[in-house]
Design brief:
heterodimer; A: 228 residues; alpha/beta; 6-stranded mixed sheet; 4-stranded antiparallel sheet; 7 helices; 10 strands; globular; B: Alpha-Beta Plaits; 2 domains; 9 helices; 4 strands; 72% helix; Cell division protein FtsX (chain B); cell cycle (chain B); FtsX_ECD (chain B)
């Protein structure tokens, strides 16, 4: 599903966030991306949905090469990828329902389909009673659930999560993880950058460790590693 | 784009206006205040321009025929003057009428001249373009039966110069004010959009195309312009109509008439609305474009 070949990324300030990365991620996988802060995890993830473009190298998403993709084609790529952030990134002036529906409105879905799909994902994330609330009226965990609901309502092939439990307490983090497991069980590929040792160690999946812009470890069912 | 998407954009733009209450208020107020200023200024400048036009059009050439010229010769002169290029209108005044006019102006002592009128017949000539007054006067002065030509030589040229400068200064001020208005309003709109930058980033993130992000913002610009223009348009209409009724009722002077509210107010309101909507859309477009590119 995702193939990176010799990906190198240097920012204008001279920081090298990716120093020749090779990786391949198959459809349906659940992958943790671990590593210390500033190691290049976020850049690694951002390049997958073309928020960042590598300085050199190639990135394929379902056989489409992303580095040479035209700016106007980027929205169509993003409709196939759901993204979840540590700070949720919800539209503050839209209700829970509207935030989720927005991802379907951009692809010009009919109102009846939007209603049906939004209701389904709200059930999946357990927020059916809060549809009319605004993000600032929700707890962190609830906001993250809205964010996840928005990322999957389009039925994307890939969900990318950048430290989705970073702002949440352990109990809420586990609830969020359960939702991700459920989504993964339905065949969606999940790539999650995390600092949460507890989760990585107790919910084993493939672990890619990044340090200094390089993949230093790639294990099928790895642990967070004590060295980090 | 599907029609339901267009409806969605319109609905969303209104929703966003109400949910961003204070920002909407700030932008609408900026439009209102600036348009009021522009409106008042345009009313003043256009009426001064009208006054200048009236003054210019009031300039005429008085052609005095040879006092000894016969009726046929005066008719010949009249024909010649009428055929002079650039002449718009010629009024004939007989020597008798001329003397009556002088008696009215200077008193009955001049009535003595009734027995032996020394004046010649007069022609009052207006140029189609007041600026050609001097050249027409020169031309007429060469005709055989012309005794004298008067048009306020020197003074007319000065007057035209003053009016020309006045007009240019007025036009310059209106343009400067419009430019300032565009800057002020679009800056206010830009500030409100900057505050919503994260929204634009999120929209892009979930796969919204540039136009899908841009259209609701531009529609908001249209509504901001329209809402902001309502008050200035209403106030200008009410106050100008009242001023016109008050002023015209009292004014005897032929030179200074206010512009007729119909069609002036219609044109003014249309201009204000156009400026407001244009600036609203332009401000939104430029601000969103900046964030879409980044």
């Amino acid at each position: 599903m995702i193939v990176m070949k010799n990906v190198y990324k240097k920012y204008p300030n001279g920081v090298v966030a990716s120093n020749g990365i090779h990786v391949e991620i198959e459809k349906g996988e659940f992958v943790y991306v671990v590593g210390p802060s500033g190691a290049g995890k976020s850049t690694f993830i951002k390049m997958m949905y073309r928020e960042e473009v590598p300085s050199s190298g190639l990135i394929y998403f379902n056989n489409t090469e992303l580095t040479k993709m035209h700016r106007k084609d980027v929205p169509y790529l993003r409709r196939q990828i759901g993204v979840v952030f540590q700070d949720f990134k919800l539209l503050p002036k839209l209700t829970v329902y509207e935030n989720i529906a927005y991802a379907l409105e951009v692809i010009e879905e009919s109102p009846s389909v939007i209603r049906q799909k939004v209701t389904e994902v709200l059930k999946l994330v357990g927020l059916t009673r809060k549809t009319r609330m605004f993000p600032n009226e929700l707890s962190g965990g609830e906001q993250q659930r809205v964010s996840i609901a928005r990322s999957i309502v389009n039925q994307p092939k890939l969900v990318i999560a950048d430290e989705p439990t970073g702002n949440l307490d352990p109990e809420t983090s586990w609830e969020i993880m359960k939702i991700f497991e459920r989504i993964n069980a339905q065949g969606t590929t999940i790539i999650m950058a995390t600092h949460n040792k507890d989760i990585v160690d107790n919910q084993p999946h493939r672990v890619i460790q990044i340090e200094g812009g390089l993949i230093t470890r790639d294990e099928h069912e790895g642990e967070y590693s004590n060295e980090i | 784009m599907k029609s339901r998407t267009v409806r969605r954009h319109i609905r969303e733009s209104f929703k966003s206006l109400s949910r961003n209450g204070w920002m909407t208020f700030a932008s609408v107020s900026a439009v209102t205040v600036t348009l009021l200023l522009i409106g008042v200024f345009i009313v003043i400048m256009m009426n001064l321009n009208q006054l200048a036009d009236n003054i210019e059009n009031d300039v005429e050439i008085k052609v005095v025929a040879e006092p000894g010229a016969s009726e046929v010769e005066v008719q010949e002169l009249l024909k010649e003057v009428k055929e002079t290029p650039g002449v718009a209108e010629v009024k004939y005044s007989s020597r008798k009428q001329e003397l009556e006019r002088m008696i009215q102006s200077f008193g009955d002592e001049l009535a003595l001249y009734k027995q032996d009128n020394p004046l010649g017949d007069a022609l009052y000539v207006k140029a189609d373009d007041p600026k050609n007054t001097a050249s027409i006067a020169n031309e007429i002065s060469t005709y055989t039966y012309t005794f004298d030509v008067e048009y306020g030589e020197g003074k007319v040229e000065k007057l035209f110069n003053v009016l020309k400068i006045g007009r240019n200064v007025g036009l310059g001020l209106i343009l400067a004010l419009l430019f300032t208005a565009m800057f002020l309003i679009s800056n206010t709109i830009r500030l409100t959009i900057v505050a919503r930058r994260t929204e634009i980033d999120i929209m892009k993130l979930v796969g919204a195309t540039d136009s899908f992000v841009r259209i609701p913002f531009m529609l908001e610009g249209v509504w901001l312009g329209i809402f902001g223009a309502v008050l200035p348009m209403t106030l200008m209409t009410i106050f100008y109509s009242k001023l016109y009724d008050f002023w015209e009722g009292r004014l005897q002077n032929q030179l200074f008439h206010l512009l007729d509210p119909n069609p002036f107010l219609l044109q003014l309101n249309f201009l204000l609305l156009f400026v407001a909507v244009f600036i609203g859309v332009w401000g939104s477009f430029m601000s969103v474009r900046k964030f879409l590119k980044s």
